[in-house]
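lol ok so funny story. i was supposed to be doing the assay writeup but got distracted and ended up predicting the structure for this chain instead. priorities right. anyway since i did it might as well share w the group, maybe its usefull for someone
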Amino acid sequence: MTNEHRATDPIALFRHWLADAEGLPRDRVPEPTAFALATCAGDGRPAVRMVLLKDVDPDGFVFYTNLQSRKGRDLTGNDRAAMVFHWAPLERQVRVEGRVTRVSETEADAYFATRARGSQIGAWASRQSQVVQRAGDLERRVAEVEARFAGVAVPRPDFWSGFRLTPETIEFWTGKPNRLHDRQLFVRAAGVWQVRTLYP
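and the output, tada:
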């Protein structure tokens, strides 16, 4: 087992692994912050999709979305979620499970202001996860939003914000020969991380 697997702070270890992935050429890892986000609707139907991580701190992992999208509705109705990061060239994977909460309005505003203007326009124009009724509807909505905010800063829509997944468990997986992989599970109990080694 490597020294990094003896870490006691899983957030610090995650940041280290993320930095390693970000240091690879983009033709090997095009989106180092990409992760699969799993949610579950109130009726028990699961869903999973790829999302981009926008921040990580001791309180959790932050991502943003249209609150009216399927994942936004799922997370509003069921605050439990899971995510997995997979960096194949490094033979590393991180699984996170926990509860989500909405980020503050101030935090959401600050992040939205850093987005490219085209992405800001797109946030207003897209009725995310809804059916496009007619060809060209999205393009018309983009044009309308561009005209509406011509010459001024684009504010954050009230239907667009972020979630923070506060981890209860974080598992670090490292690929090894013969499928005898390293699996290090961090479990948070009463605010303290406990470390367990799992069989592959």
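Residues 3-104+161-197 form a domain with the Pnp Oxidase; Chain A fold (CATH 2.30.110.10). Residues 76 and 150 are 33 Å apart (CA to CA).
back to the writeup now i swear
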